[in-house]
Each structure stands twice: as structure tokens, then as C-alpha cells.
């Protein structure tokens, strides 16, 4: 069984700016290995290697322009023999990536959308067609139905 997690966040910047910031984050942090960028510069495939005790995880990232904002969609996919997500690690990988992009962008390149509550809501909202595990996360954090 494979564990799949998806989340999305919206940034008030052009897609090219977000892509540039994301490249800096992916190339400056040792946990992101084998970074592959799609031909249009808006799709990324990464091997996440968080620790020598943890198995590598596949992460796919998509940047979608939406008017004056840009949607950052991230999916983690475990290896086929992983049967559960003890510690909610796969969602944590995504949240950590969003935080790193925000931190890198805070130097003037990016501003995350809305107020802090709206940012948290955006981070916890599962992407279209995501697994029921994302719904469980929403339920556990008390965000479901808001």
C-alpha cells in the first residue's frame, strides 16, 4: 500500500516568481535530492531524503497561475510497501516545504496570501481528489466544515 498526501497553498505573486523561489528552496536544502524541473518550469519532481533512518519519499510539485495569485500544489508518495503514516510525516513534509518557500520569499519576493488563519486554512485544505487521509487531518485539527 502506498501513502499519498496532497495539500495546496496560494501565494499573491506571479508563477515565475514562485517558481524561482521554489528552485532556491529545493537546491539549498539537503533533504531535497534529484530535483527535476519540467520543460515549462512549473512542475517539479523531487526525492525527499529527510534522514538516514527514514526512507526516501517522492514529492511532486505543481505551480498553477490563477489570475494575480499562484497555486502551489504538492503531493508526497511513499514507497509501495509503506502501509501507514505514523507521525503524520508525509503531511509534515508538505507543510515544511510551504514554510521554507514563505521564509525564502519573506526577503521581499513573496507574501503569503491573507491573514494567518486563512494561511493555515489554505495549508490544511486538501487538493482536489486527494485521499481521505487529508480529510482525517482536517477533522483532527478541527478545520473540517469551515
Brief write-up:
With 146 residues, this protein is of the alpha+beta class. Helix content is 34%, strand content 27%. A hairpin with an 8-residue loop joins strand 3 and strand 4.
Write the layout of secondary structure elements.
Blueprint: E1 4-11, H1 15-28, E2 32-37, E3 43-48, E4 57-66, E5 69-77, H2 89-105, H3 116-124, H4 132-141
Antiparallel strand pairs: 1-5, 2-3, 3-4, 4-5
Helix pairs in contact: 1-2
Your description of this structure?
Mean pLDDT is 76; it is low at 109-138. Helix 1 packs across helix 2. The chain has a single domain (4-139), classed as 2-Layer Sandwich (TATA-Binding Protein), CATH 3.30.310.220. Strand 4 (57-66) and strand 5 (69-77) form a beta hairpin. The chain starts with a strand and ends in a 5-residue tail after the last helix. It has helices spanning 15-28, 89-105, 116-124, 132-141, and strands at 4-11, 32-37, 43-48, 57-66, 69-77. 34% of the residues lie in helices and 27% in strands. It contains 4 helices and 5 strands. With 146 residues, the chain is of the alpha+beta class. The chain has a 5-stranded antiparallel sheet.
How would you describe this structure in keywords?
single chain; alpha+beta; TATA-Binding Protein; 5-stranded antiparallel sheet; 4 helices; 34% helix; 27% strand
**How much of the polypeptide forms β-strand, as a percent range?**
25-35%
What is the strand tally? 5
Share in helix: 25-40%
Instruction: Tell me the distance between the termini.
Output: 31 Å
CATH homology superfamily: Fungal kinase associated-1 domain
Spatial extent as radius of gyration: 15 Å
CATH architecture: 2-Layer Sandwich
Mean pLDDT, nearest integer?
76
Specify the number of helices: 4
Biggest sheet: strand arrangement: 1-5-4-3-2
**pLDDT < 50 stretches:** 109-138
Stated plainly, the CATH topology is called TATA-Binding Protein
What characteristic shape results from the CA principal axes? globular
Multimerization status: single chain
The CATH class turns out to be Alpha Beta
Amino acid at each position: 500500500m502506498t501513502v499519498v498526501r496532497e495539500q495546496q497553498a496560494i501565494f499573491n505573486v506571479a508563477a515565475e516568481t514562485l517558481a524561482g523561489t521554489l528552485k532556491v528552496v529545493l537546491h539549498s536544502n539537503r533533504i531535497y535530492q534529484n530535483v527535476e524541473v519540467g520543460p515549462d518550469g512549473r512542475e517539479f519532481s523531487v526525492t525527499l531524503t529527510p534522514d538516514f533512518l527514514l526512507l526516501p519519499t517522492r514529492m511532486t510539485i505543481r505551480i498553477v497561475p490563477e489570475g494575480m495569485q499562484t497555486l502551489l500544489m504538492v503531493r508526497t508518495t511513499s514507497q509501495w510497501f509503506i502501509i501507514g503514516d505514523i507521525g503524520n510525516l508525509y503531511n509534515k513534509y508538505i507543510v515544511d516545504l510551504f514554510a521554507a518557500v514563505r521564509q525564502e520569499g519573506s526577503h521581499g519576493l513573496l507574501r503569503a496570501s491573507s491573514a494567518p488563519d486563512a494561511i493555515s486554512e489554505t495549508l490544511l485544505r486538501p487538493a482536489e481528489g486527494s485521499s481521505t487521509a487529508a480529510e482525517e487531518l482536517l477533522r483532527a485539527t478541527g478545520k473540517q466544515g469551515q
